[in-house]
Amino acid sequence: MSEADLDTVSGGLAAGGSGGLFMETPVADLCADALAVASPEGLAAGAGVHTTAL
Questions:
Q1: For residue 4, is pLDDT > 80?
Q2: For 6-39, how does the pLDDT look when each residue is reduced to its tens digit (9 = 90+)?
Q3: CB atoms near residue 34 (< 10 Å)
Q4: Can you tell me the distance from the alpha carbon of 41 to that of 45, in angstroms, rounded to the nearest whole number?
């Protein structure tokens, strides 16, 4: 079996990244995150933001 066939079977050849931010102030808290993953099957991405006023 070739290396390319093994990658296809095992779900290899994927790349991704993520990041996040958290800020706390005397008035409010802010939390944000993002995620992206690319593979031969397609692209998945997501993001979220949450705030809390004190």
A1: no
A2: 655 665 567 889 999 999 999 999 999 999 988 8
A3: 14
A4: 13
Is the separation of the CB atoms in 54 and 29 below 8 Å? yes
H-type alpha helices, 1-54:
3-10
> Torsions phi, psi of 30, nearest 5?
-130, 130
Q: What is the dihedral of CA 15, 23, 49, 45, to 10 degrees?
A: -10
Structure tokens at 53: 């006023």
The confidence score (pLDDT) of residue 15 equals: 84
DSSP 41: T
